[in-house]
C-alpha cells in the first residue's frame, strides 16, 4: 500500500521511526514533510499535502492511506479534514484505530506524538492499515451524507438545524 505521511516538529522523530517501520513492512512511503526540525514550523501545509495525495491516489484507484502526527494530533486531523474527500480520524487506542476503518472508512489516521510511545503509535497505525471498512449499509449511508454535504452544503432528506 502507498502511505502518505506528514507531521510537524512535534512528531518528526515519530515520523522518521514510523517511515522506517512501514517501509520494512513493504509499504511505499511518501513523506510530505517537514524535512528537518524547526520548532516554529506549521502543520497545516504538510498535513493538507498528505491528505490531498491520499484522495488523489484513491480517486485514481491506487491503494493509499495517510498518517499525520503532531503533538496532540488534533490540529493535524483538522488540517487533513479540510481536504475534500479526506476522512481523518484522531486515533488514541486500539479500538479507535479499528473503528476508524470499520465504521468511518477513514483514509487518514491522526496521532498525537506527545500522547503515546512510538510503539503504541506503530500498533495503532498497523491496526488501522490492516482493518477493512465493514461496508455495512448504515456506515456507508452516513459517509455518503458527509460527502454530499461537502459537495452541496446539504443532505437530501435531512433537515440541518
Ligand atoms: O494540534 C496541533 C499539534 O498538537 C501541534 O503539534 C502543537 O500545537 C505544536 O505545539 P508547539 O508549537 O507548542 O510545539
UniProtKB/TrEMBL annotation:
Pfam families: LacAB_rpiB
Amino-acid positions noted as binding D-ribulose 5-phosphate in the UniProt annotation, renumbered to this chain: 8-9, 71-75, 104, 114, 138, 142
UniProt keyword annotations, A-Z: Isomerase
GO biological process, one term: pentose-phosphate shunt, non-oxidative branch
Entry's Gene Ontology molecular function annotations: ribose-5-phosphate isomerase activity
EC number: 5.3.1.6
Superkingdom of origin: Bacteria
Associated pathway: Carbohydrate degradation; pentose phosphate pathway; D-ribose 5-phosphate from D-ribulose 5-phosphate (non-oxidative stage): step 1/1
Catalyzed reaction equations: aldehydo-D-ribose 5-phosphate = D-ribulose 5-phosphate
Family: Belongs to the LacAB/RpiB family.
Quaternary assembly: Homodimer.
Protein name: Ribose-5-phosphate isomerase B
Organism encoding this protein: Schumannella soli
High-level lineage: Bacteria, Bacillati, Actinomycetota, Actinomycetes, Micrococcales
Amino acid at each position: 500500500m502507498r502511505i502518505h505521511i506528514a507531521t510537524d516538529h512535534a512528531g518528526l522523530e515519530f515520523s522518521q521511526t514510523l517511515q522506517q517501520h512501514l517501509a520494512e513492512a513493504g509499504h511505499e512511503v511518501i513523506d510530505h514533510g517537514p524535512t528537518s526540525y524547526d520548532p516554529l514550523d506549521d502543520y497545516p501545509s504538510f498535513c493538507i499535502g498528505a491528505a490531498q495525495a491520499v484522495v488523489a491516489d484513491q480517486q485514481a484507484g491506487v491503494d493509499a492511506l495517510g498518517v499525520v502526527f503532531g503533538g496532540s494530533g488534533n490540529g493535524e486531523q483538522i488540517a487533513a479534514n479540510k481536504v475534500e474527500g479526506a476522512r481523518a480520524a484522531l486515533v488514541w487506542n486500539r479500538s479507535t484505530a479499528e473503528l476508524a476503518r470499520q465504521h468511518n472508512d477513514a483514509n487518514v489516521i491522526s496521532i498525537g506524538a506527545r500522547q503515546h510511545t512510538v510503539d503504541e503509535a506503530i500498533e495503532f497505525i498497523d491496526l488501522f492499515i490492516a482493518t477493512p471498512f465493514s461496508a455495512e449499509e448504515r456506515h456507508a449511508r452516513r459517509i455518503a451524507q458527509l460527502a454530499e454535504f461537502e459537495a452541496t452544503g446539504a443532505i437530501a432528506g435531512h433537515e440541518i438545524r
